[in-house]
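[agent] plan:
  1. take the single chain provided in the ticket
  2. run structure prediction with default settings
  3. attach C-alpha cells to the ticket
  4. add a short note for the reviewer (M.T.)
[agent] executing step 1
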Amino acid sequence: MNLNQLTIKKAHDGLKKKEFSSVELTQSCLDRIKERNPELNAFISVFEGEAIQEAKKADELIASKKQQTLTGIPFCVKDAICTADRRSTASAKILDNYTPSFDATVIKKIREQGAVLLGKNNCDTFGHGASNENSMYGPVKNPHDLTRVAGGSSGGTAAAVADHMCIFGIGEDTGGSIRQPASFCGIVGLRPSYGRNSRYGIMPMASSLDTVGPMTKTVEDAAIVEEIIAGKDSLDATTVDVGVPKYSKKLKVESKKLRIGVPKEYFETEGMDEEVKTKIKTKIGEMEKQGLEIVEVSLPMTKYAIPVYYIIVPCEDSSNLGRMDGIRYGVREEAKNLYDVYTKSRRAGFPDEVKRRIMIGTYALSAGYYDAYYRKAQKVRTLIIQDFERVFSEVDLLVTPTSPFPAFKLGEKKDDVLAMYLADIFVAPAAVAGIPAISVPTGNTKAGLPVGLQIIGPRLGEEKIFKLANLIS
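[agent] step 2 finished; step 3 output follows
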C-alpha cells in the first residue's frame, strides 16, 4: 500500500514505530496531488514547500517523543475555512488575493497537534451549491467517474480524501455540504450538532446553520478528528459548554438493543434512484440481522425542510456577504465612484448562484416581506425541530439514504436550479434542526458509483452515531 492510502490510525502507528517519516508520508500525498489534481481539480492552492517544512518539524516532535494523535499527518481544508498565512478564497474571485492572519479554531486545534497542511480545497463559492460546479475555479470531478460531479459544496475535500491525496480533510456543512459529497465520493463525512464545533474562522454562509466537521476514510478516523476539534470556544458564543467524549475509544456498541428508526418519508421521494433505495434497504435488513431493532417512523415535517432552508439561507447569505465589496475585503475593480467600485467588484467576484441567493435573501428580508417569508420559515423550522424531538423520544437513531441518487453527470442539473436544490432533500432536515448526522459508504451501484447511508442522531448524540456507523461499516 502507498503511504498516502493510509488511515489516520495506521499513519499514526507507522510514524510512532518509525516505519516511515512524516516527510515521506507528506511527499507521498503531494506526489498524488501532482498526479491527479490536474484531472480532478480538487485543490485550489497547494502549499508544497510549507508542508515539507511542517513535516520536518513533526518528525522532530516524534523523535523527541512528543507525538500527539495527528502529529505528522497530512490533511487538507475546504477553502471557505481560514488558514493563517495561507490563501483562502472560498472559491470566489473576489477573495482571490485573501490571506487570513489567523487560523479557524478547528484548524488551530489540528495544527497545534503538529498535523501537516497540504492545501486548500475547491468548493462551491461560499458554499453555495450541491455539485461543486459553482466554483469560480472550475468544477471538481468525481474520482470514481470523471464525467460526474463530486458533490457540494465540500466536493474538493471529498474528492481529495477519496482519491488519497491526503489522509483526512476538514469540510463545512450548512445544509448537507459534508454528507452529500461524502456520499457521492464514497467516504465518511460528519455534520456535528450545531454548537459542538467552533465556527470561528469559517467564512459565514448562513450563520444559524453553518457547521464544520471531518471528512475521512473510516468512521474511526472521523471520531479521532472530531474529539480533537470539538469543544467550547470563547471566540464563538454559539458553542456549547459540554464535555467532549473520547469518541474513538467508545466505538463499540455495548448492547445491540438500539432502536433504529426508518422514516418512511425518505423512501417515498419522487425521483429516488431504485438502486440507491435497494442498497439502503439491504443494509437496514443486515442491521436487523445483527440484532438491532428496526422501527418505521414518520417525520411529516420533512417535506418542508427544503423550502425552509432555501428561505433562511439566502436571507442570512445576503446579510453575511454584505462585507464582500472590494473595499473591506477582496479584489477591487477600478471605477470612477464608490458605487461603481461595489457593483463592478461584486459583478466580477461573485458567480451567478451567489448573486441569485443575495437577491432572494434581500427581497425576503425587505419591509413587507420579512413576516411572510423569513419569520414564517423560522416558525416552520421550530416544527421540524419538534418533529425530530418527538421521534427521538421513541428511537435512538434514524437511518436514511444520504442522497436520493448517486453522483450525477457534470452539467446535468446545472441549469435546473430547483433540481439542484432538491439534491439536498435528505440532508437538509438535520441541518435545519441543528442535529448531528453522518454519511457512511454502503456499497456501489452497478456503474461503480458510491452510495451513502445517513445516520441521524439527537442533539449532541455524536457518540451514538459513531457507534452505529462503526458497527455497520
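[agent] step 4 note for reviewer: The chain has one domain: 1-473.
[agent] ticket updated
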